[in-house]
Amino acid sequence: MKQKLIVTLLTSVCLMGTASVIHETTPQTVQAAVKGKVQVKGTKKVRLYTNKGKKSKYYAVAKREYSYSAKKYLKLGKKKYLAYKIGNNSQWLLAKNAKLVKKTAATQNYATATMKMPSGYTKANLLQAYKGKPSASFIQACMKGMEQNNFSRVSSGESKADQKMINPADLSASEQKELAEFSLRLINSARSQLGLKPWVYSSGVESLANSIAQEYEQNGKSIKDGDHYVAGIVRACKKHGLELNDNYVEDMAGFSTNKKIMSMAEMKRNIYFGLKQMIFGFAGAGENQRNDKSLYREWEHAGDLFNTQGSRHDGDYNYYGFSISKTGNIYSMHFISVPSFVVNSSEYNKNFKI
């Protein structure tokens, strides 16, 4: 294949850092698990008791709510009374002096992931950045894009369904397609704002993406290596009937974590942050570095995602699939796209089915 016909080769990759930072923790006081809450009845303070049923020197404040960690019957004289254990000093509040507070569902901060392109992010400005000459105003636009697109800083996902747990290294077919459609929706939203045709999901490209992920895993490769695994990509392409001799199909982001399972919400945040990195040229390791102007320096991925590279195929669209590979504690996310002109070419498409 003649490289002058396809200029989507990406020579750099983004190692996503939302899950790669190792946090050190300081010792904390261990407290008993909270079982619920009670509220003191009446308008006067009430006496608290010790574990042995003796009067304590402490009182509970009228109408105040207290968390309790245990309940049991205390023997006071000849009678037994139900009581709740409150506070850090093992004080007991008699149930007759309190009422249970009903549990309420925790508020979930759900939000639909969107990708809003900032003013000043144009195809013309992107092309200059792709060629290594980003304008100061374009860099500012990219910094704004990293800031205003905040789904990767939302903790609860898009809906309650995103709380389900998944194994990124062993996705079901439906889970993989959900992630592919999630990432494609974001890509196409950005493309639409730039006046570009949408990319198209393809089961054939999804299958190719799986083969590429297998090549990475079987050969111990990952995004941590700092480059695409070209030999494996070429083998996978030929296996699927694409006569390509270099990497013309893969964009890649990734993250490191010792987790084997995570919520769908967390996985979507990882994808979202990886796409933000590629779109806005951000080479930092995490959200906390997004205000560092010096980290905005690579737009080859963006040129690919938006078919804007100064070639005769600018403005075209690609067929798309998504996969994940795991090597050690590194998860590589493979954003695989095959240009439509390659699919339609008898020179490059020998038996590839979209």
Fold and architecture overview:
- Residues 1-19 form the signal peptide.
- The chain is α+β, with helices and mostly antiparallel strands and 354 residues long.
- The chain has 2 domains: 36-101, SH3 type barrels (Roll); 123-343, 3-Layer(aba) Sandwich (Pathogenesis-related Protein p14a).
- Helix content is 27%, strand content 21%.
- The protein has a 5-stranded antiparallel β-sheet with strand order 6-5-4-1-7, with no helix packed on it.
- Strand 2 and strand 3 (55-60) form a beta hairpin.
- Helix 2 runs antiparallel to helix 6 (264-280), helix 3 (173-193) packs parallel to helix 6 and helix 4 (203-218) packs across helix 5.
- It is elongated.
Question: How do you describe this structure in short?
Answer:
By secondary structure, this protein is an alpha+beta fold. It is built from eight helices and 13 strands. A hairpin with a 4-residue loop joins strand 5 and strand 6.
Provide key terms for this protein.
single chain; 354 residues; alpha+beta; 5-stranded antiparallel β-sheet; SH3 type barrels
Helices and strands in order:
Layout: E1 36-40, E2 46-49, E3 55-60, E4 65-76, E5 79-86, E6 91-94, E7 98-101, H1 123-130, H2 136-148, E8 165-166, H3 173-193, E9 200-201, H4 203-218, H5 230-239, E10 250-256, E11 262-263, H6 264-280, H7 300-305, E12 318-327, E13 330-339, H8 340-343
